[in-house]
Design a protein that fits this description.
The structure holds two protein chains of two kinds. By secondary structure, chain A is an alpha+beta fold. Helix content of chain A is 31%, strand content 26%. In chain A, strand 4 and strand 5 form a beta hairpin. Chain B has a single domain, classed as STAS domain (Transcription Regulator spoIIAA, 2-Layer Sandwich). Classes of the chains: A alpha+beta, B alpha/beta.
Amino acid sequence: MNLDGQSQCRRLTVSPDPARLTEIRRFVEDVGQEFGLDGERVFDLKVAVSEACANAVEHSGGQHHPLEVCARFYDDRLVFEISDGGDFRLPGARRNARRDDRGLGLPLMVALMDEVRIAKMRGGGTTVHLSLYL
Amino acid sequence: MKVLINNTLTQDAFVIEVDGEVDVYTAPRLKEALSEGLELRHRTLVVDLTKVDFLDSTALGVLVGAQRTAREDGAEVHLVVGSPYIEKMFKITGFDTLFLIHKSVDGALGAT
């Protein structure tokens, strides 16, 4: 069952490569402006989506599952879904979670978004849902 | 992203001008520039972020790491921030308490 139902998805699919993050942020900017968000919220969204994608790239482990970014428009909110083929890991946890080094991505997403949901998909892969309510 | 080391302003400070987007992909270049300033034993490093339009958690980590190293050597990293959005990144992480944040490079140099 797909809980997201009939909502249309604007999709960007890229290889899990940090060099592609700029392109992802351009996509987020276009979608956010189209949705009528102000400059600050567009910026917040760029940070949150960029962090989610950077985490996905990091835990893709050099494999080549594509990274999918899907933007869904609803009456009351805008949702970005970031899906990859890897298993979610706490970034930086391996290195004793030095918060000044890596590992700030998830707290930033939580601070900037209205809702953050991380779903481990059956058969592998992780989807991060980032929502902004109007 | 472009990183320019500008030593024409003053001999006392090591000024790093950053232009563009600083993220996990480009932050290593900022880290290199900061390391260079620290290795040259400058007591004041100024990172001018006025032309930066995006900053991620890796970039914040690089700046915080540089500040820690600098203070161990009796030096200090100063920031110049123009965008309120970039300033907000420092506020929500609490990193605004680790840096003196200035509105202009002149302001940063005047504070040293």
